[in-house]
TrEMBL record:
Membrane-spanning residues: none
Native species: Emticicia oligotrophica (strain DSM 17448 / CIP 109782 / MTCC 6937 / GPTSA100-15)
Family the UniProt entry places it in: Belongs to the pirin family.
Span of domain Pirin N-terminal: 17-111
Signal sequence bounds: none
PANTHER family in the cross-refs: QUERCETIN 2,3-DIOXYGENASE
Domain of life the protein comes from: Bacteria
Descriptive protein name: Pirin
A UniProt-annotated Pfam family: Pirin_C_2
Gene3D superfamilies: Jelly Rolls
Residue ranges constituting the Quercetin 2,3-dioxygenase C-terminal cupin domain according to the UniProt record: 151-224
InterPro entries membership: Pirin (IPR012093), Pirin_N_dom (IPR003829), Quercetinase_C (IPR041602), RmlC-like_jellyroll (IPR014710), RmlC_Cupin_sf (IPR011051)
Length: 226
């Protein structure tokens, strides 16, 4: 059995920021040397926003921003004038220059929303752009491409699997690391039990085997420069 260098980020150990109208669990902890970001994947926040509330963020460095709704829909807008409504299955991709801003807003009158906020740092952004991707959340037992940036060797995939279904993730770039984030259910990834909102970083591996341990188990896989 091949043992890959790995680091586990348990959901229960995530630091959080909490206000009366907003809560964010942070996959990475800059205050803990063992829980530092993985390569260019600098932020992976699990955010919950109250009805009628919005959150603005200013980008400090050139960054690829991904907003991934999990519960409810979100309104997204940025300082370029772009505006869109994102339902579950639609991903906002904002290629942001330093100094630009974006806002996520909860348009509902009474309901909370839950979404992932992902920041992948880039060396330089020449021009700000905003696009979107659609994830077919009804498709099961295969990996779906969410985001691909050949300029920085970064790739994000989504998978939804039935219990006992197995799969293999093969590395696309020669010097990249992988970060698995379980959204729902449970998986065995590289012989490690991973449950909802757990993360697993794996370094210097050409391929990783995984098995879903529950029905409707969902995860994201980030492949980023090492």
């Amino acid at each position: 059995m091949i043992q890959h260098e790995a680091k586990i980020f348990l959901s229960a150990q995530r630091p959080k920021t909490e206000l009366s109208w907003f809560r964010s669990f942070h996959s990475f902890n800059y205050a803990d040397l063992y829980k530092q970001p993985i390569g260019s994947l600098k932020v992976l926040n699990d955010n919950t926003l109250s009805a009628g509330k919005g959150l603005k963020t200013q980008i400090k460095k050139s960054t690829e921003v991904l907003i991934i709704p999990l519960v409810g829909g979100v309104e997204f807008k940025n300082s370029t004038g772009y505006h869109d409504f994102l339902e579950t299955g639609k991903v906002q991709i904002f290629l942001a220059q330093a100094g630009t801003e974006y806002e996520v807003f909860n348009p509902y009158e009474t309901e909370l929303i839950n979404y992932l906020e992902v920041l992948i740092e880039k060396e330089q952004v020449i021009e700000t752009s905003t696009t979107s991707a659609i994830i077919d959340t009804e498709k099961c037992n295969e990996l779906l491409l969410v985001f691909y940036s050949p300029q920085q060797d970064a790739l994000v995939s989504f998978g939804k699997y039935w219990g006992r279904e197995e799969g293999v993730y093969q590395r696309h770039f020669g010097k990249s690391s992988m970060y698995f984030f379980v959204i729902e259910g449970a998986f065995e990834i590289d012989n490690k039990l991973m449950e909802a909102r757990d993360g697993l970083a794996i370094f210097d591996a050409e391929e990783i085997e995984f098995e879903a341990l529950s029905n409707n188990a969902m995860f994201l896989i980030f492949e980023i420069p090492a």
